[in-house]
Every structure is written in structure tokens, then in C-alpha cells.
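FW: tagging you since you asked about this chain on Friday. Here's the raw sequence from the shared folder, copied in full. Didn't touch anything.
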Amino acid sequence: MNEQHELYENARYRVKQKKRLFFHLIVFLVGSVFLIILNKIFKVGENYVEDWFVWAILLWFFLFILHVINVFITKKFMDRNWERAQIDKLVKKQELKIAELEKQVAKERNLQLEEDKKLAELKKKENSQNSLNQE
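HL: got it, structure written out here
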């Protein structure tokens, strides 16, 4: 149940991340069109640098690409913390299984020792009875 909750939380976080990325793409496109309109139609900033909006759009695009890389490459669906937690769970399960197997082997060993003792006692009794019968 806990694992399902973790998977759900990771999936929810991932969906939220992708929604934000899509929202930022829309903001980037609308903002770029707005900067072009400001420059070409309203002539804002023409006195300073020609085509300043191109540099603003390029800078904004660079930030958007960083966001894309962050979402799709650096923040994978199952990040390192999740992988580490899963490995820890598997190690614990393995340790529990090993402990169970050790208990089972010890039980079997004790049973075998008890059977060996019983057999030795039976042999002693048979030997003592045989020696009495021979006399």
C-alpha cells in the first residue's frame, strides 16, 4: 500500500511538472508574440538597440530549454531518491528472507540432530539386547 502511494505521489508530481512546462511554453509563445508586437507595431525600444526583442526572446527561449531539460532529463520519473528507497526496500526484504532461511536451516539441523540421537539410542539398545541375547 505504501509503495502504491509513493508511485501515485511520483506520478502526480510528474504530471504537475509537465503541466507547468506546457504552461511555460504557452507563456513563452504569447510573450514572444507580445514582444514582437511591442517592437514592430508600437515601436518600443527602437531608439536603443535594433531588434532587442530577438535577444529577449532568445534569452527567454534559453530559460525555457533549461526548464525542458530539467523536466525531461534531470528530474526523471523515478529519481535517485526513489531508486535508493526501492533498493533499501529490496535489501530489507532480502535480509528478512535470509533470516527466515537461516531459521529454517537451523530447525532442520536440530531435527536431524534429534533423529541422529534417537538412532544412536536405538542402536545402543539393539546392541545391548543383542549382547544379552548372546549371553
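FW: The mean pLDDT is 85.
HL: agreed, and The two ends are 74 Å apart (CA to CA).
FW: great, closing this out.
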